[in-house]
Protein backbone atom coordinates (compact mmCIF):
# COMPACT_ATOMS: atom_id res chain seq x y z
CA UNK A 1 0.00 0.00 0.00
CA UNK A 2 1.39 3.40 -0.93
CA UNK A 3 0.94 6.71 0.88
CA UNK A 4 -1.42 8.00 -1.82
CA UNK A 5 -3.66 4.90 -1.90
CA UNK A 6 -6.83 4.87 0.15
CA UNK A 7 -8.82 1.61 -0.01
CA UNK A 8 -12.42 1.88 -1.16
CA UNK A 9 -14.89 -0.96 -1.54
CA UNK A 10 -16.41 -1.14 -5.03
CA UNK A 11 -18.50 -4.29 -4.60
CA UNK A 12 -19.62 -6.53 -1.73
CA UNK A 13 -20.79 -10.11 -2.23
CA UNK A 14 -22.14 -12.34 0.53
CA UNK A 15 -20.28 -15.57 1.13
CA UNK A 16 -21.13 -18.64 3.17
CA UNK A 17 -21.65 -18.57 6.94
CA UNK A 18 -21.87 -14.78 7.41
CA UNK A 19 -18.80 -13.86 5.38
CA UNK A 20 -18.42 -11.04 2.86
CA UNK A 21 -16.18 -10.72 -0.18
CA UNK A 22 -15.07 -7.09 -0.50
CA UNK A 23 -13.79 -5.96 -3.90
CA UNK A 24 -11.37 -3.06 -3.46
CA UNK A 25 -10.32 -0.28 -5.81
CA UNK A 26 -6.83 -1.77 -6.25
CA UNK A 27 -8.28 -4.97 -7.74
CA UNK A 28 -7.86 -7.10 -4.61
CA UNK A 29 -10.62 -9.11 -3.01
CA UNK A 30 -10.73 -9.63 0.72
CA UNK A 31 -12.82 -12.10 2.71
CA UNK A 32 -14.27 -10.87 6.01
CA UNK A 33 -15.87 -13.06 8.66
CA UNK A 34 -18.68 -10.97 10.16
CA UNK A 35 -19.67 -13.45 12.91
CA UNK A 36 -17.49 -11.77 15.58
CA UNK A 37 -19.25 -8.45 14.94
CA UNK A 38 -22.68 -10.09 15.03
CA UNK A 39 -21.76 -11.65 18.39
CA UNK A 40 -21.21 -8.14 19.80
CA UNK A 41 -24.88 -7.31 19.20
CA UNK A 42 -25.86 -3.64 19.29
CA UNK A 43 -25.91 -2.12 15.80
CA UNK A 44 -24.75 -5.47 14.40
CA UNK A 45 -27.70 -7.44 15.87
CA UNK A 46 -29.88 -7.24 12.70
CA UNK A 47 -27.11 -8.97 10.72
CA UNK A 48 -27.76 -12.20 12.64
CA UNK A 49 -30.77 -12.79 10.40
CA UNK A 50 -29.27 -14.52 7.36
CA UNK A 51 -31.90 -13.17 4.95
CA UNK A 52 -31.31 -9.61 6.18
CA UNK A 53 -27.53 -10.15 6.06
CA UNK A 54 -27.62 -11.28 2.42
CA UNK A 55 -30.36 -9.02 1.03
CA UNK A 56 -29.32 -5.77 2.67
CA UNK A 57 -25.58 -6.13 1.98
CA UNK A 58 -24.40 -3.31 -0.25
CA UNK A 59 -21.71 -0.68 -0.66
CA UNK A 60 -22.33 2.70 0.95
CA UNK A 61 -19.84 5.33 1.99
CA UNK A 62 -17.19 3.43 -0.04
CA UNK A 63 -17.48 0.58 2.47
CA UNK A 64 -19.16 -2.77 2.99
CA UNK A 65 -22.52 -1.81 4.46
CA UNK A 66 -26.00 -3.01 5.34
CA UNK A 67 -29.04 -0.87 4.61
CA UNK A 68 -30.78 -0.95 8.00
CA UNK A 69 -33.94 1.00 7.13
CA UNK A 70 -34.58 -0.22 3.59
CA UNK A 71 -34.35 3.35 2.26
CA UNK A 72 -30.79 3.08 0.89
CA UNK A 73 -29.91 6.20 2.88
CA UNK A 74 -26.12 6.21 3.45
CA UNK A 75 -26.67 7.84 6.85
CA UNK A 76 -28.93 4.96 7.94
CA UNK A 77 -26.61 2.02 7.47
CA UNK A 78 -24.09 -0.08 9.31
CA UNK A 79 -20.82 0.23 7.43
CA UNK A 80 -17.40 -1.23 8.10
CA UNK A 81 -14.18 0.77 8.03
CA UNK A 82 -12.65 0.00 4.61
CA UNK A 83 -9.08 0.68 5.76
CA UNK A 84 -9.38 -1.69 8.71
CA UNK A 85 -11.00 -4.31 6.49
CA UNK A 86 -8.26 -3.91 3.88
CA UNK A 87 -5.48 -4.28 6.45
CA UNK A 88 -6.94 -7.07 8.60
CA UNK A 89 -8.72 -9.47 6.27
CA UNK A 90 -7.09 -11.99 3.93
CA UNK A 91 -6.83 -11.46 0.19
CA UNK A 92 -8.60 -14.23 -1.71
CA UNK A 93 -9.28 -15.26 -5.33
CA UNK A 94 -12.45 -13.95 -6.96
CA UNK A 95 -15.29 -16.30 -5.97
CA UNK A 96 -17.32 -15.17 -9.00
CA UNK A 97 -14.77 -16.28 -11.59
CA UNK A 98 -15.35 -19.55 -13.36
CA UNK A 99 -12.69 -22.15 -12.57
CA UNK A 100 -10.36 -22.77 -15.48
CA UNK A 101 -10.85 -26.15 -17.12
CA UNK A 102 -7.78 -28.34 -17.29
CA UNK A 103 -6.35 -28.32 -20.77
Overview of this protein structure:
The model has no long low-confidence stretch (mean pLDDT 94). The protein is an alpha+beta fold. The termini are far apart. The protein has a three-stranded antiparallel sheet. A hairpin with a 2-residue loop joins strand 4 and strand 5. It has helices at 35-40, 50-55, 82-88, and strands at residues 9-14, 19-24, 29-33, 57-60, 63-67, 77-79.
Keywords:
about 100 residues; three-stranded antiparallel β-sheet; alpha+beta
Topology:
Elements: E1 9-14, E2 19-24, E3 29-33, H1 35-40, H2 50-55, E4 57-60, E5 63-67, E6 77-79, H3 82-88
Antiparallel strand pairs: 1-2, 2-3, 4-5, 5-6
What is the helix fraction of residues, given as a range?
10-25%
Unreliable spans are none
Please compute the radius of gyration using only Cα atoms: 14 Å
Largest sheet: 3 strands, antiparallel
Sequence of secondary-structure elements: EEEHHEEEH
- Which word captures the global form? globular
SSE class = alpha+beta
Read across the widest sheet, the strand sequence of neighbours is 1-2-3
Number of strands: 6
Number of helices: 3
Distance between the termini: 36 Å
Binned strand content = 25-35%
Would you tell me the overall average pLDDT?
A: 94
Summarize the structure.
The protein has helices at residues 35-40, 50-55, 82-88, and strands spanning 9-14, 19-24, 29-33, 57-60, 63-67, 77-79.
Amino acid sequence: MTDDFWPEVLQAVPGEDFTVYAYFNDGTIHLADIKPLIAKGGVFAPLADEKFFRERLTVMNRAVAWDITGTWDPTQCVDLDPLKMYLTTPKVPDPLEEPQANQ
